[in-house]
Amino acid sequence: MSNFKPNYFQRRSKPRGPKANERIRALDVQVIGSDGGNLGAMPLNKAIEIAKQEGLDLIEISPNANPPVCKIMDMGKYKYDLQKKANQAKKKQKVVSLKEIKLRPGTEVHDYNFKIKNAKKFITKGDKVKFTVKFKGREMQHTELGKDLMNRIIEETKDIAKVESQPKFEGRQMVMIIQPI
Prior knowledge:
By secondary structure, the chain is of the alpha/beta class. 33% of the residues lie in helices and 29% in strands. It starts with 27 loop residues before the first strand and ends with a strand.
């Protein structure tokens, strides 16, 4: 007795990329030649025949046009160019991350200066910085110390950053986010 179980729910892989040759469903297509010249609108069979004579594929470039625009080119080269474009776009994008700096209302001057220096470094790299001032016990009665601390941070970073979200309370902590200008 074998352990083979047919998988009835197996996913069918959907063909990726643009439609080519016989997969194109339109009756008439606007054809662009391999040299880039416009060959005009023609029946799909004739366009595929022309592409086969040149040893290339008929690729649907703009499926939503009426009639759809197809180009005679090599499918492998076209997919390679698309992949290259996608990689270039991915390389150029900048991922902005959120760095968090935690303080207390009684943070000493040296620690404060060190944390501000780090915040400036994060901002110059292009990251957002979230400042959190935590209050414990009786410190909740002196929330103005936290507000003063936040105002001092805004004042010291105003030349390289702007406030994205103003200082506000979330439970027992005051939170503010600044971002590069």
